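Regression test case RT-17, inverse folding.

Input:
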């Protein structure tokens, strides 16, 4: 049995936009679910308006998170649009919504409204800060939550400004947590549970990614510093300049450290009693990095990657994204592909996909409105 038949027969109503909710629904679609995306008539998902765009004018952000779906365009503020959504909902298993707290209820599209028409619905709500008295009043996006959670303050060079992670890590992980929550709820439903609520919260996802830093703050009283590419609990674990480009070395263990010192001709560093264990190396990180950096600056990235890797030490180039996409190991993973029905649309397979999932291009706004409304009449 292939992965794309996992949720065959499951119907999902996607009332979300931006990244987290659409990603959760797309993962279910990749696994075989029939996902109907309801978008605002005339405007559609907010990401449809975002650059950069393909040669045909489509937003690459929208394309990245909405494959394998059908699109219905409705005005949900009207009785006809509201009734159409609830009519569709009679035959769906999952609803995913990312309206600001309170908005779905005002539109008559909250959990209770869907539970009336579908007694076994799994209703997933996505928010930035949750649905409590404080969180429900706070507006948030990925960058704001990175800033609020402490993630941004920990990212960047020691003497530099806080930096947002380039990837939308909070949105993406929230989508993943939401998808897992939905899958767990479906399992509970199989065991007899009725209609259920699932919550995906950007703040929760951001803090979850900081689990070991939080453990350090709460358990050891250690507030982590901004370290650039370095790690708080290991050294040498950093990016270093060479004559061509930078390389990343992760000499985590004592064995890695000794081997690295041997390869670099730094026997005095390897025999330094202050550096015998990880704690000592972290305590003398700057001095250690300076000695290693002096040696690495004398040869190319290619030279050092070959030599250090041959010694069994974790190392790789610090690649620009195009180089990472062109790397042989990336091609081996076969994640980069194109839409089955339009080779001009670049797509990425989900890491869950065994290669059997369909790769239908993301739908045009309202492309399936007539088809879906007739189907759910």
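Golden output:
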């Amino acid at each position: 049995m292939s992965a794309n038949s996992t949720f065959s027969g499951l119907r999902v109503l996607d009332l979300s936009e931006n990244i987290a909710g659409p990603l959760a629904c797309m993962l279910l679609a990749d696994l075989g679910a029939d996902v109907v995306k309801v978008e605002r008539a005339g405007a559609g998902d907010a990401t449809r308006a975002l650059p950069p765009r393909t040669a045909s004018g489509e937003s690459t952000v929208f394309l990245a998170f909405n494959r394998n779906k059908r699109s219905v365009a409705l005005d949900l503020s009207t009785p006809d649009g509201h009734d159409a959504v609830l009519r569709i909902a009679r035959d769906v298993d999952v609803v995913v919504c990312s309206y600001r707290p309170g908005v779905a209820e005002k539109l008559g599209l909250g959990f209770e409204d869907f539970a009336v028409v579908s007694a076994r619905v799994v209703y997933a709500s996505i928010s930035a800060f949750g649905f409590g008295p404080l969180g429900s009043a706070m507006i948030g996006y990925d960058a704001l939550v990175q800033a609020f959670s402490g993630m941004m303050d920990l990212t960047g060079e020691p003497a530099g400004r806080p930096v947002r992670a380039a990837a939308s890590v909070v949105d993406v992980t929230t989508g993943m947590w939401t998808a897992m929550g939905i899958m767990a709820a479906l399992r509970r439903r199989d065991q007899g549970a009725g209609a259920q609520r699932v919550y995906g919260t950007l703040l929760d996802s951001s803090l979850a990614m900081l689990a070991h830093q939080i453990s350090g703050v709460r358990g050891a009283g250690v507030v982590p510093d901004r370290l650039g590419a370095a790690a708080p609990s290991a050294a040498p674990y950093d990016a270093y300049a060479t004559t061509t480009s930078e390389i990343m070395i992760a000499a985590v263990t004592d064995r890695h450290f000794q081997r690295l010192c041997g390869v670099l001709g730094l026997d005095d560093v390897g025999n330094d009693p202050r550096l015998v264990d990880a704690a000592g190396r972290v305590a003398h990180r700057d001095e250690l990095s300076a000695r290693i950096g002096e040696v690495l600056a004398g040869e190319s990235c290619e030279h050092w990657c070959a030599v250090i890797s041959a010694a069994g030490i974790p190392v790789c180039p610090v690649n620009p994204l195009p180089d990472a996409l062109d790397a042989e190991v990336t091609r081996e993973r076969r994640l980069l592909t194109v839409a089955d029905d339009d080779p001009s649309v670049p797509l990425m397979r989900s890491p869950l996909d065994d290669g059997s999932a369909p790769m239908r291009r993301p739908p045009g706004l309202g492309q399936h409105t007539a088809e879906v409304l007739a189907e759910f009449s």
